[in-house]
Specification:
alpha+beta, Methylamine Dehydrogenase, Chain H, 4 domains, 9-stranded mixed sheet, globular, metal-binding, Quino_amine_DH_bsu, hydrolase, NCDase_C_sf, signal
């Protein structure tokens, strides 16, 4: 006679495709999915012998399931009429397993401790309430049922706690493929990740379940159990769960197979493994094993750990292990486990060890259930962990299990109960059924304080109570309620819900028949109607709708770092130190978002810096995480940090060693100025968000760029070049198109910003310039913003961003390169002069005859960009198109370029290489020649001074395969394989794309050459036309922006690479660098489609690049003190202005100064021009009319005595033609530093002068 389980299996076999014979994995015809009974069913899970089939030998019989019975009602409960600041929520089971299970709301305040405020019943009983978790906004709690499966009841219970003193039961549900709700982690965009420890019948494998914000189950991961887990003989029973939304990873820990704790059993099946997941696609990267772990119950990331480390509890040996998710073991497998601490004999075989960590990462606490003990560790130094409790102490607690640290880190809440399965289970742990409130002492140790006795409170009405888990709310500040939610969940790392168009092939019969025989689940139609599993039921947006409304915002903030004594970033000349300020630097933030989906948005940043950077990006992302839930939608996936490529900003802020060498290392002041200012710009853009429209147009800009490596460009195929050679004035060697995106708010039609893309290097200011400025892009932005100040069609804070495009071989020095000694053009191939060297070859801007370090030419090139952009902006109605489509999508991935193997479109297999720089890199360009005897177009290292071969070899002699991989580049610096004292250049790069309607933005980490950028854009445009054809009839518009995120030098075509001029020698990853970028971009492009619109934005996680901010070297000395000349004070005028000037004259004054590094005066000014105004009432006032923001007001600083520490400041105003006649004066704002370190502000004021 068949048992019920046998009947289930037999019925399943008859219904499954397997019964008809082997299923071809490549056969997707409808017939391949039909059962012998003619029923067409969607596949659910793979058929895995020994795992999904209950008759297998390693799947013990499921006990007879209990028939659900209506729970007993309890008498009405009247709670205490109090509103404490600290609340404890306890997910509690009735002691008799007959009355309803319930949520207890209790006071944790000192004066009302333990008073019950409310009881919230759920509709069922006997669930054995398990873990409890909170949403990030603190409005929803979710509790799981440990034994719900046995009563064929829902397993997850949701509570509305928007009124924290009166929770309401909201709903319950269950998963289809899995059961036994364990750990819960909230997602920033709403919803939860939940570990379900067992399959639908309590066996292995379990699942990682994902819900949306409403608590509906949207997926059960992993999708490919067989392929991912190699589950044949490998247990998968996820219990512990940790999510790092910053680093894009998940850790789950395997505990026990749930069904093996039930009678009859051959013994509990315990696991010794953890799984490392890729957050973006929810796939398992690797399995990490703890030797003889015998049940890894818990895992939690250590907040603030630079390696993203986590701690895991191994129940069998009673140990705490540290997990390094980004380290690799000796075999190269990702994820390493190391023993951190042995908790001693009480912890060994304790059945359960649960943990919590303070949000500063200093202290960790562990409950040892059978040892009746709570342990405390100081983990602030992982190399010297200290135990803070006495392991031999007898503590006043029985069966401690769930542990939570209060938000203020002053208390620990521990429940004295784990599980009691009764007659059907072999696991029945002792407990005192109390909620223990422990004090955390200043050194991290613990003191038992008081407790809530649930058993005594509820014995009469509910047969006692079993409090398993808890959540703490701190309402001290009602406007900013705090929970104990983990720091790991506060970061909006951005993730992807990947709903497949076809679910994986599987044998589903046993599961379906199981549902039918036992009545475990609702009819199939309920799943289909609810849209909980099948991709076609997710209410995707109407892609045909004429929807052109977006959330739009723009903001600008000051990022000007130290303007003196710091090496300038760009020309790599250690002698080029800042001596003052020509124009302040700014971060300009543009945000575009969906009006319907909170997480569908992106931030495009334009910084007046040489490039984007890994360290700065990390700093900005960490800062956004600290801003809390309101900013939780921003993360790696949707933040692009680009630089205008100005070579006139302060340096010493970059992540890798190579660019730090000329600046004498890393400077925190320079770094923080950029990070903090960028954060402020984002906040201003975010706070300005409101519905609006976007329009895009393009125009030609003449006389603002030329190709500085024309010889390399000519190496590209003639037929390709011919497509762009349209006239004598536009031979196609550079792109003349400027693309502009116009931002307008819908409420009044006013413009809030303009974002442009146009290629021209930020090298108008020459290598002998020592004044900080944003170069020609900074000028263009200033002119545009200045022109909009009085416009009635623009908002007050109008922002103009001038972003770079495919700028790699493009120069603003439009007259070409000439030799300084002869006046003749430089050599076409090598950019050398008559002496065979490059040092005398310099490019000339349009006003090169003005001996002003390039300032006049810089202004002119900026003005030409502004003029074209403003004309286009003003005429957008006739020359633009409205951006249309209801989706705003983004993608980001980190990709290791050191050895990426891939196929070209023609089928050729190629690879990239670890980063290396060639000999021509050291030659520099005509915009900024290098030193010594290096020349461009050098593909033969034998032509070079042998001294440099020795220098390159001292760094690291490249391997033979590295030389072959980079050929024909002769390797000067094998920087990608040098890691001492830390990495010299990046091997891990950012791949990122944004999409709004028909606009696609390629975010490039390097400087793409003109033709490289064209190929990249064309490839994207071609694929987008086919991918998105059904979504919009508008042709794709593709732009490229950069250098962004992690600066990776140059990106050239293979033909340009072969010429080995500067750009090719600086293409880091070999001749197929461009092809690799195109390959990765096209690979991820489908994620920008409307079919992905319901999922959160995509971020593919690791491997993450290093953050070197806390270990970078620095040999930059700080300011020791400031002094004044005898009989002088700070701010005194040394050389005053004259009495009268004509408009167009230059006005100067000098002051007794102090070092500007004492105060960066962000969002302020060092210098000001004030104009005398006399009101009608004859009241005089001085109005500020020029500041550091203005191009024509210049601030010079000069050290006059090293011994006396004296200095002077010169303020210069190049009066403009539109300056008003009147009476003026200068004001100098300074800050001096005493020998003791005190900084004191002061001011200086010049005499008055008249401007005629």
């Amino acid at each position: 006679m068949l048992s019920k389980i046998s009947l289930v299996a037999l019925t399943g076999f008859l219904l499954s495709p397997a019964a008809a014979g082997p299923v071809n994995g490549n056969d997707h015809s409808p017939a391949s999915k039909r059962s012998p009974l003619g029923i067409s069913l969607p596949p659910l899970i793979p058929s895995i012998p020994g795992v999904t089939e209950p008759l297998a030998s390693n799947a013990p019989p499921l006990p007879i399931l209990q028939i659900p019975t209506p729970p007993l009602e309890s008498p009405p409960f009247t709670g205490a009429n109090i509103k404490p600041k600290k609340i404890g929520y306890f997910w509690t089971g009735a002691g008799d397993n007959i009355h309803k299970d319930f949520l207890v709301t209790a006071s944790l305040d000192d004066d009302t401790f333990g008073q019950i405020i409310a009881l919230t019943d759920v509709p069922t009983s006997g669930n054995s309430p398990h873990h409890l978790g909170s949403s990030l906004d603190g409005k929803t709690l979710i509790g799981g049922g440990l034994l719900s499966l046995l009563k064929t009841q829902d397993t997850a219970f949701y509570f509305d706690v928007s009124n924290p003193y009166a929770p309401k039961f909201k709903k319950s549900n269950r998963a289809l493929l899995s059961s036994i709700v364990d750990e819960i982690r909230a997602k920033p965009e709403g919803g939860f990740f939940i570990t379900y420890m067992g399959s639908a019948v309590g066996t292995s494998p379990g699942r990682l379940v994902e819900t949306n914000a409403e608590g509906d189950i949207i997926h059960e991961w992993p999708e490919d159990v067989a392929g991912t887990l190699n589950i044949l003989g490998e247990q998968f029973s996820p219990h512990g769960l940790a999510v790092d939304f910053n680093k894009g990873i998940i850790l789950t820990s395997d505990f026990v197979v749930p069904i093996t704790i039930l009678k009859p059993t051959l013994g509990i099946q315990k696991a010794s493994t953890l799984r490392l997941w890729n957050l973006s696609d929810r796939t398992i990267i690797s399995t990490i094993t703890i030797p003889a772990g015998l049940g890894i119950q818990d895992v939690k990331f250590i907040p603030g750990n630079p390696e993203g480390a986590a701690i895991a509890t191994a129940v069998g040996p009673g140990q705490v292990w540290i997990i390094y998710p980004f380290r690799r073991d000796s075999s190269g497998k990702q994820g390493v486990a190391e023993l951190l601490f042995d908790l001693g004999s009480k912890a060994k075989d304790s059945l359960a060890i649960y943990s919590d960590i303070t949000d500063d990462g200093k202290f960790a606490y562990f409950t040892i259930t059978l040892g009746n003990h709570v342990a405390a560790l100081d983990i602030s130094d992982l190399n010297n962990v200290k135990r803070l409790d006495d392991p031999n102490e007898t503590q006043p607690i029985i069966g401690p299990h769930y542990v939570k640290i209060s938000p203020d880190k002053k208390n620990l809440l521990v429940t004295g109960y784990f599980v009691q399965g009764g007659d059907i289970s072999i696991v029945n742990t002792p407990g005192d059924y109390k909620g223990h409130w422990l004090d955390i002492l200043p050194d991290g140790s613990l003191s038992f304080n008081r407790s809530i006795d649930f058993e005594s409170i509820f014995t009469r009405d509910r047969g006692g109570a079993r409090p398993h888990s808890s959540v703490i709310f701190d309402l001290t500040d009602p406007k900013n309620p705090k929970t104990e939610r983990r720091k790991e969940t506060r970061f909006a790392g951005g993730v992807s819900n990947k709903f497949p168009t076809e679910l994986p092939e599987s044998s589903v019969g046993f599961l379906l028949s199981f549902l039918v025989v036992y009545g475990l689940y609702a009819p199939w139609s309920s799943f289909i109607d609810a849209g909980r599993w099948f991709p076609g039921t997710f209410n995707e947006p109407d892609i045909d709708a004429d929807n052109d409304l977006y959330l739009v915002g723009a903001g600008r903030a000051d990022i000007t770092g130290p303007v003196v004594e710091i090496n300038m970033m760009g020309y790599a000349d250690p002698k080029q130190l800042g001596t003052g300020l020509r124009q302040r630097l700014y971060a300009r933030a543009f945000i575009v978002g969906s009006t319907e989906r909170r997480n569908d948005r992106f931030i495009y940043l334009v910084l007046d810096t040489q490039s984007g950077d890994t360290a700065v990006r990390y700093g900005v992302l960490h800062g956004l995480a600290e801003l809390g839930f309101e900013y939780s939608m921003y993360g790696h996936h949707n933040l692009a940090l680009t630089g205008t490529h100005s070579h006139s900003g302060p340096g010493a802020w970059l992540n890798y060693l190579l660019p730090q060498i000329t600046s004498k290392g890393f400077d925190q002041q320079s770094y923080r100025a950029i990070v903090d200012g960028t954060l402020l710009a984002i906040r201003r853009a975010h706070e300005s968000l409101e519905p609006g429209h976007l329009s895009i147009g393009s125009t030609k800009v003449t006389g603002a760029n030329i190709n500085r490596s024309l010889y390399s460009y000519m190496a590209n195929p003639e037929e390709e070049r011919a497509k762009y050679n349209v006239s004598a004035e536009n031979d196609g060697s550079v792109e003349k198109d400027l693309t502009l995106l116009k931002f307008q708010r819908a409420s009044d039609g006013k413009s809030i910003g303009a974002l442009t893309w146009f290629p021209t290097h930020g090298t108008s200011m020459l290598g002998n310039n020592t004044l900080i400025s944003g170069d020609n892009k900074g000028v263009a932005a200033w002119l545009f913003e200045k022109s909009m100040r009085k416009s009635s069609d623009a908002t007050k804070g109008f922002v103009a961003g001038f972003s770079q495009a495919n700028v790699g071989d493009v120069s603003p020095n439009v007259l070409g390169a000439f030799c300084e000694d002869t006046g003749e053009p430089c050599d076409f191939k090598t950019s050398t002069c008559s002496d065979g060297k490059s040092q005398k070859c310099h490019a000339r801007g349009p006003l090169f005859r003005e001996k002003d370090e390039g300032a006049s030419s810089c202004f002119e090139i900026g003005k030409r960009q502004y003029t074209a952009a403003k004309a286009l902006f003003d005429d957008m109605g006739s020359k633009s198109q409205r951006i249309r489509g209801s989706w705003v999508k983004s993608f980001h991935a980190f990709h290791n370029m050191s050895e990426f193997h891939f196929e070209l479109p023609n089928g050729t297999e190629v690879r990239t290489c670890p980063a290396a720089l060639g000999y021509s890199f050291a030659a520099g360009t005509s915009d900024g020649p290098g030193a010594f005897d290096f020349t461009q177009h050098d593909s033969n290292s034998t032509n070079t001074n042998p001294l440099w071969k020795v220098v390159g070899g001292l760094l690291k002699a490249p391997r033979e395969d590295q030389v072959a991989c980079h050929s024909p580049k002769p390797i000067l610096l094998d920087v990608g394989e040098v890691f001492n004292p830390y990495q010299w250049t990046p091997n891990i790069v950012d791949i990122q794309t944004f999409r709004i309607g028909q606009l696609i933005i390629i975010v490039s980490p390097g400087e793409a050459s003109t033709m490289a950028g064209r190929r990249w854009k064309d490839a994207v445009k071609h694929q987008a036309e086919s991918l998105f054809a059904e979504e919009t009839d508008a042709k794709p518009v593709v732009v490229i922006g950069g250098p962004a995120n992690s600066y990776t030098h140059y990106i050239t075509t293979p033909q340009e690479y072969g010429v080995q001029r500067y750009e090719g020698a600086s293409t880091l990853y070999g001749p197929y660098t461009l092809d690799a970028y195109i390959n990765r971009t096209l690979n991820y492009l489908p994620t920008l489609g409307a079919s992905f619109a319901k999922g959160p934005p995509a971020h593919a996680g690791g491997p993450f690049p290093p953050d070197n901010t806390n270990r970078s070297l620095s040999f930059i000395t700080g300011v020791v003190r400031d002094g004044t000349p005898v009989f002088r004070s700070f701010g005194d005028v040394k050389t005053d202005v004259e009495d009268n000037y004509a408009i167009g004259d230059v006005v100067r004054a000098t002051f007794v100064g102090a070092n500007p590094r004492n105060n960066l005066r962000l969002e302020q000014t060092y210098a000001a021009v004030e104009r005398l105004t006399i009101d009608k009432g004859a009241i005089k006032r001085w109005d500020t009319v020029r500041t550091d923001y203005d191009w024509n007001l210049i601030f010079h600083w000069k050290r006059t005595s090293d011994i006396l520490a004296t200095s002077e400041v010169e303020i210069v105003w190049e009066t403009e033609s539109d300056a008003k006649p009147g009476t003026y004066r200068f004001r100098y704002y300074g800050d001096s530093k005493s020998l003791g370190g005190k900084i004191t502000s002061f001011e200086g004021v010049s005499g008055q002068f008249k401007l005629h």
